[in-house]
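Batch 3, record 17
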Amino acid sequence: MTARYALDTHTAALQQGRLLISVCAACATPQFPPKARCGHCGDTGAPRWIAAKGTGELWSFATFHKAYLPDFDLPTPYVVAVVALDEGVRVYGNVVGRPTAELQVGAAVRARFVIDRCGPPRLTFSLDDEEFDD
Ligand SMILES: [Zn+2]
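Prediction for the assembled complex:
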């Protein structure tokens, strides 16, 4: 695996409560995770990283009734989702704050950031109409 595919920049930003996504350095087309070759212009250079707004829509989701990682701190059941960010890329995250029955594909969501003491930072979303005390 080359540095081209590395998510270190993305992961380090999550640790600081920022959501960075990669874009083609030549044509600025968002591509996340980073690609070896830009699907738009064919550029093979290193990506550039930009701050995403953290807003988007719920593209798909599933409810998990078992925690598969020992340090995972969300109570079961929990929601794993694919969110289509407003910048045009899709990311994985958890959706918190509402029962699964109240979630709908296409719902507006907003990123929150969870810093686990024991694990890597985790991207979490809530419905965009919710207020949270972070
Ligand atoms: Zn490009």
